[in-house]
Design brief:
The chain has helices at about 10-20, 30-50, 55-65, 100-115, 160-205, 210-225, 270-275, 295, 335-410, 415-440, 445-450, 450-465, 485-505, 540-550, and strands at about 70-80, 80-90, 95, 115-120, 130-140, 145-150, 230-235, 245-250, 255-265, 280, 305-310, 315-325, 470-475, 510-515, 520-525, 555-560, 565-575. It is of the alpha+beta class. It folds into three domains: about 10-185, GAF domain (Beta-Lactamase), CATH 3.30.450.40; about 210-355, GAF domain (Beta-Lactamase), CATH 3.30.450; about 450-575, Histidine kinase-like ATPase, C-terminal domain (Heat Shock Protein 90, 2-Layer Sandwich). The strands form three sheets. A six-stranded antiparallel beta sheet has the order 3-2-1-6-5-4, with helices on both faces. Strands 9-8-7-12-11-10 form a six-stranded antiparallel beta sheet, sandwiched between helices.
Length: about 575
């Protein structure tokens, strides 16, 4: 094989000589040159219309094969000095990339010297090729952005200087198209990056459970880093403080599959990152000592990276693991750093979710304790009411009978003594009435004896009799409530009507109870009194007490009021309250 040499000047001189002396009717070189010019014209049209870099590379390989009528042609686009997009053509048909050491050596020379290189084979060395030509494609600032390789095996027609000139012309025609396709590719990548960032942000900001949230993040990260599959898991802490990794599913082919796994410390890649708090790389997964046997048996799992999800305090909360199939590049430290930063964002969301869960658990506990407290309070009220009605009432009745007996024993002449006894009888009657009223207010017997709706009507009647407040009551027929909800709504209605009588400066109120649109029970207490300003703090505890009772029932509470336009209190509670 003779030494590769630069051929641009020779090609231009020979090409000009052929065009000057060739006879269009008889010259074979002229006809060959005319065919090449037509092929270049056709290539220029197709290159100008192609926007996708991969399809452009395939188109260039096909035209290169046809332009010089060679057996094999390949094209490589370069990014950061490394080929990232390749295409090959054999006999006019796309094929797999297959380059010999000679081709790789010529490509290295072209990348260093920025000029075409031609190598001629030597049959004595047993080579199966006649010529190999490598031509650079130069972009802006005269930087090599692609290479085109021509491999000719036809011994009867070696690559001529005219062919070299045609190949250089093809490279020049393709230059602008390669730059443009690269630009469109970058725009697509930027757009995809923006979409992924928005997806990351949406996944983190959604109120999802941590397992769902990290799954969404892994899907987006896999698409962003062009990984074929992956898995994700979270740390689980046992009762004795022991910690391990757990995963419920594996992502592949665009969907999640059931894949329950558990890794103790230093067990598998997740166990390694739990212990080391450091990313782990596997260039050939099936040969890695920490690989999973199930995944190692899958052809699509070849490259692997596993990174920890760490909190702000450096505590490992979980892991991300991504896989690439054979033929794809290894994961880089830059990609691992991206996954770690994504993990840091996920960790904040995980900790926030756990704080919210803890807060909600405490709120549920407080609500349970509050309901239990109200229940015990109502039971104590029922007990005190019964004691007042039975014990104190019976004692007063006994005193009244004793006074009556004592009055019968006194002579009629003892008028002063009879007057004192009569006064005592009057005081006893007043005390009995007050005790009865107090017992009723503590726990109205009608609430236990006749039910909730009857108790509300009795409550309205009492306000009219005692305070002169006429209450119009309207209750639907389908009202059914549990004991806690019935007691709470009764107390809310009692407190609301008390506020009306004290502050509204009106003698009319309206109380309605009906079913809402979603099946809940709706109670409304309304008046047309003087109203008040909602932003001003209330001096009493009535409104806050009503609000707490509604919260205890998992209901909703609202109040509307304006000076001079009355007040409307609306309470909505579920029927199973």
């Amino acid at each position: 094989m003779r030494t590769a040499r630069s051929v641009r000047t020779v090609a231009e001189e020979v090409g000009a000589e052929l065009l000057t002396h060739a006879d269009p009717r008889t010259s074979r070189p002229f006809r060959h040159l005319r065919r090449q010019l037509q092929q270049l014209s056709l290539a220029a049209q197709e290159f100008a219309e192609e926007r996708d870099a991969q399809r452009l590379a395939s188109c260039m390989a096909r035209h290169a094969c046809q332009l010089l009528n060679v057996d094999y042609a390949s094209v490589a686009f370069y990014a950061n000095g490394r080929p990232d997009i390749t295409a090959a053509c054999r006999g006019g048909t796309s094929c797999a990339l297959d380059e010999s050491p000679v081709v790789r050596a010529l490509v290295e020379q072209v990348l260093q010297e920025h000029s075409p290189r031609l190598a001629v084979g030597d049959s004595n060395e047993g080579q199966d090729w006649q010529d190999i030509l490598v031509v650079p494609v130069k972009g802006l600032h005269r930087k090599v952005i692609a290479t085109v390789v021509f491999v000719n095996k036809k011994t009867e027609r070696p690559v001529s200087d005219t062919d070299v000139a045609a190949a250089v012309g093809l490279a020049r025609i393709a230059s602008a198209s390669v730059d443009r396709a690269r630009l469109f590719g970058h725009l697509h990548e930027w757009s995809r990056s923006l979409e992924m960032l928005l997806s990351f942000n949406a996944a983190v900001n959604q109120r999802l459970e941590p397992p769902q949230m990290v799954r969404q993040l892994l899907e987006n990260a896999a698409r962003f880093l062009k990984a074929g599959s992956g898995c994700v898991g979270l740390v689980v802490e046992g009762p004795q403080g022991e910690r391990w990794m757990e995963s419920e599913g594996r992502w592949e082919d665009g969907q999640w599959r059931e894949w329950p796994r558990r890794w103790e410390r230093e067990e598998g890649m997740p166990g390694f990152v739990l212990e080391s708090e450091f990313p782990y790389f596997a260039s050939i997964y099936r040969h890695d000592p920490l690989s999973d046997p199930d995944l190692a048996a899958r052809e699509e799992v070849h490259r692997c990276v596993c990174v920890p999800i760490k909190s702000m305090r450096g505590e490992v909360l979980g892991f991300f693991q991504l896989h690439r199939p054979p033929g794809e590049p290894e994961f880089t430290w830059q990609e691992a750093a991206f996954l770690e930063s994504l993990g840091n964002t996920a960790a904040v969301a995980i900790e926030n979710a756990r704080l919210v869960e803890s807060l909600e658990a405490r709120n549920r506990e407080i609500k349970r304790l509050s309901a239990e407290h109200v229940h015990r309070l109502e039971e104590e009220r029922r007990h005190i009411s019964r004691e007042l009605h039975d014990e104190a009432g019976q004692a007063l009745i006994g005193l009244k009978l004793g006074i009556q007996v004592l009055s019968g024993l006194l002579p009629e002449e003892a008028r002063e003594a009879h007057a004192h006894l009569e006064a005592l009888r009057g005081q006893l009657n007043e005390s009995a009435t007050r005790i009865k009223e107090l017992a009723t207010r503590l726990r109205p017997p009608v609430l236990d004896e006749l039910g909730f709706t009857a108790a509300l009507r009795q409550l309205a009647l009492e306000f009219q009799q005692r305070l002169g407040l006429r209450v119009a009551v309207e209750i639907a027929d389908d009202v059914e409530l549990g004991n806690l909800a019935a007691t709470s709504l009764y107390r809310i209605a009692q407190e609301a009507l008390t506020n009306v009588s004290k502050h509204a400066q009106t003698d009319r109120a309206y109380l309605t109870l009906h079913s809402g649109r979603n099946g809940e029970l709706v109670m409304v207490v309304r008046d047309e009194g003087r109203g008040f300003v909602l932003d001003q703090p209330s001096p009493g505890l009535g409104l806050s007490g009503m609000k707490e009772r509604v919260k205890m029932l998992n209901g909703q509470w609202s109040i509307a009021s304006e000076p001079g336009r009355g007040t409307v209190l609306t309470v909505r509670v579920p029927r199973d309250g």
